[in-house]
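Problem 12. The chain below contains 264 residues. Write out its predicted structure in token notation.
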Amino acid sequence: MPGEKESLNQETEAKKGLSRRDFLVTGGTAVAVDALISITPARAVAAAASPSPADASIPASKGYLVYDNKKCAGCTTCMLSCTLAHYGVQNLSRSRIQIMQDSFAKFPHDVKMAPCRQCQAPVCVMNCPVGAAYVDTENGNVRRIDSKKCIGCKTCIKMCPQQPHRTVWVLIEGKGKSSKCDLCIDTPFWNQKGGPGGKQACVETCPMMAIKFVTEMPDQTETEGYDVNLRNEHWLNLGLVDNSTVVPPKMPEWKTTMPKEVKR
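Solution.
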């Protein structure tokens, strides 16, 4: 009978504990949250991720990578050396430092570098459900990811406020894992000491010397504090200045002397 079927349906829904309407509402909310995260500007997310008193116990990293976008030639040497040092292969997709190129933009906005910031408030560390992302207190408090502990949930990638995300998805032994810059602390294919007090593959191989290792924490406001001036006076002579009010020095005048006439 129709009445019996309706009663039976209501009992079935009650046993499930979640009605079809509730399911749709809940699912819609989850989708909305994911969409909100994807379109929220990095500056807003970074502000939300600023350190709170509860996070004050996280020690600051003793090493950072700063760069000069105006010196970067977009050659991707840093990306290739990063993957060679960590994985023994040349693979741009595995690189822990990113170079973004825009063929339609004008200098200096055509090339942008994106290394890990070693954030003061590392949201990747604070939100990892299994502790795979951690602060390596034995190696200068560098923010790292232990691939053996990583379960591939991509939480650290979703939480990173920067674009592109500084945490990178790679295949390790056939399984998807998250990875990030460790300042070359663990480089199985590069026989050099890394981390604070050591060497970094990207710094050592950049032909333009556009990347530099520093120990002082850069300004944490977005990424401006990491994009610094690494140019010397030779770049100024070429007219590569920060603003139009800077007048490049005049090129030196070369005096030439004519050779004396040779008497025959």
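Discussion. The domain at 43-51+62-237 is CATH 3.30.70.20 (Alpha-Beta Plaits). Students who got a different answer should revisit the alignment rule from Section 12.3.
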